[in-house]
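Changelog-adjacent note: as of this version, every example in the card shows the full chain rather than a window. The one below runs 150 residues end to end.
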Amino acid sequence: AVVSTQSTGKGVPSTEGMRRTVATSGLFPRRLDNVSGRLEALTEAIRTRDFPAFAEIVMRDSCEMHACCLDSYPPIAYLNEASHRIMSLVHRFNTPNVRAGYTFDAGPNAFLFTLNENVNELEGAVRGELGDVDVIRCSVGDGPLIKLHD
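Full-length structure tokens:
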């Protein structure tokens, strides 16, 4: 699912943000050192259908990317308060078992992952935390589905 937390444009466009991060972040070279291992672990998690491992790898990767953005100069902060609330919500939702994951691209909107049996509960938790937000459900192969209200 995609949870839209901001409909306005971001302050730093993605291409400019990546250039600034590459040029100025001291954390970014370490991120590059970890790419191969992370891809191997992610591929294995997908191959073995290990959702908890998949979710943790994706969440850590997203947080690392945003840490690099914050480490750039001047800092780039793509996430907003709602983004951080979603992150906390997912970690609470995952106690005691990992049932969801998140990622954020260069913006504040959350991309949430879960298995079919958890979709309704996760969407309910998101709406309970954030109120009336746009949640766009999608699944493997079908792409996003936007329901228009009459």
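Structural remarks: The CA atoms of residues 14 and 106 lie 6 Å apart.
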